[in-house]
Specification:
There is one protein chain. The relative contact order is 0.07. The protein contains 22 helices and 5 strands. 52% of the residues lie in helices and 6% in strands. It has a 5-stranded parallel β-sheet with strand order 2-3-4-1-5. Helix 17 packs antiparallel against helix 18. The longest helix has 21 residues.
Length: 437
């Protein structure tokens, strides 16, 4: 039959050759999946599941490009299940109902359905609830993929019906394995210097799909690329980091714990990782001020002023100059003596304040601006501390019904050593005064 458009070539296209390299190299067996041996090796969860043909609904939690979709396809294929795929970004309740009905029809004829839902955390809670009845009656085996912590993003009811398997970002060894597979498939070596090859693996940032996409661009180059040549064609990849999601909380936790652990180098690394990911420096400034009070406290009373000054410096200078002031404060905190004595005392005092309700202060420390209040004993017996020989009266400031309670216990580090000496001296004076009454 003559072509309706003779100006176009109607020669059939080789579909395989036209598919992107990551798709052409997609593994077809668990043993071919790189970097997830803790799930795919003999005796590991996915291998046992496939070998026994007893599939459980599963949530695959891991970073982009680590093989979540591939694993779901392999599990369905090797278990003889019909594979259905939806993306929670585009699918709605209508799509879910259609898939569920098709799965019911398939089940009547003896077939089973594995439904793979990509980005399952994007479904609203009510949409997640729609899975419960079809999981309960075995209509589908659900495999959900998420880059976010399922504990925060998925309904407890849905989570209780699924096992959660954690996938790892691909190591550089796993990325190297992918590069070698690509070279074998294409029949040629990547035109890269040794240094450029290492940089490519670093740029992949644990994402196998992105690594193979870069490989495809490199293979099209007519000459060997050095580091600069590679960067010119792939440009720079922004590290995976979402200021609203898991990456944000993971990195700020790493930053805070590095400071608490007195490791300035690790603290600077996580600080810079967050900046490179686009974090607002003002958020980091607030967190740094919090660290000064929570983790250093009075072990170094200069920590808080340092951090406030750094925040003000950032507000005046902006980026990037102001970020150096924040880095200075961060190093100061990491190298300062640590104490949570004030933080612990504050929490205990809050707890006691809630428990004791509306107890009145002792009348001796209350002002008596009226005659009636004087008659009621307000201010009677108050001792003005600066008038005493030691500027310390030792009188009671707690409610009389409550008695004295100790909340603050300084550590023997930094400036709190001096505070401990003062408190011990005042305790001795107080004890002496009380014994003389």
């Amino acid at each position: 039959m003559a072509s309706l458009f003779p100006e176009f070539d109607n020669t059939p296209v080789d579909d395989a050759a036209s598919r992107p390299l990551p798709d052409r190299l997609r593994p077809v067996a668990l043993s071919e999946v790189a970097g997830q041996e803790h799930l795919t090796a003999t005796g590991m969860p996915l291998q046992r599941m496939v070998a026994s043909s007893k599939l459980a609904s599963t949530i695959l939690w891991g970073p982009p490009g680590c093989g979540k979709t591939t694993l779901a396809r392999i599990v369905a294929e090797q278990s003889g299940l019909h594979f259905e795929q939806l993306s929670a970004i585009f699918a709605g309740v209508k799509d879910l109902k259609a898939v569920f009905q098709a799965a019911r029809d398939r089940r009547r004829t003896g077939g089973q359905t594995l439904l793979f839902v990509d980005e399952i955390h994007r479904f609203m809670k009510s949409q997640q609830d729609a899975f419960l009845p079809v999981l309960e009656d075995g209509t589908i085996v659900l495999v959900g993929a998420t880059t976010e912590n399922p504990s925060f993003e998925l309904n407890a009811a849905l989570l209780s019906r699924c096992q959660v398997l954690v996938l790892k970002r691909l190591s550089e060894d796993a990325i190297e394995m992918l590069l070698q597979r690509a070279e074998a498939a294409e029949g040629k070596t990547l035109p890269l210097t040794a240094q450029a090859r290492e940089i490519l693996k670093t740029l992949a940032d644990g994402d196998g799909r992105y690594a193979l996409s870069m490989v495809e661009r490199v293979l099209a180059q007519p000459e060997t690329l050095d580091a600069d040549g590679l960067m010119a064609i792939v440009q720079r990849r922004v590290a995976i980091y979402d200021r609203k999601d898991d990456g944000h909380y993971n990195l700020i936790s790493a930053l805070h714990k590095s400071v608490r652990g007195s490791d300035p180098d690790a603290a600077l690394y996580w600080f810079c990782r967050m900046l490179e990911g686009g974090e607002d420096p003002r958020f980091l400034a607030r967190r740094i001020v919090r660290m000064a009070s929570e983790d250093i406290g009075l072990a170094d009373p200069q920590a808080l002023p340092q951090c406030i000054a750094a925040w003000e410096a950032y507000d005046r200078l902006g980026s990037p100059e102001g970020e150096l002031a924040l880095a200075q404060a961060l190093v100061y905190l990491a190298t300062a003596p640590k104490s949570i004595s004030v933080y612990a005392a504050y929490k205990q005092a809050r707890k006691q304040a809630k428990a004791t309700g509306s107890l009145m202060p002792p009348k001796c420390i209350l002002n008596a601006p009226t005659k009636l209040m004087k008659q009621e004993g307000y201010g009677a017996g108050y001792i003005y501390d600066p008038d005493t020989p030691e500027s310390f009266s030792g009188q009671n400031y707690f409610p009389e019904e409550m008695g004295r309670v100790s909340f603050y216990s300084p550590v023997r580090r930094g400036f709190e050593r001096e505070i401990e000496k003062r408190l011990a001296y005042w305790m001795k004076l107080r004890s002496k005064r009380n014994s003389s009454l």
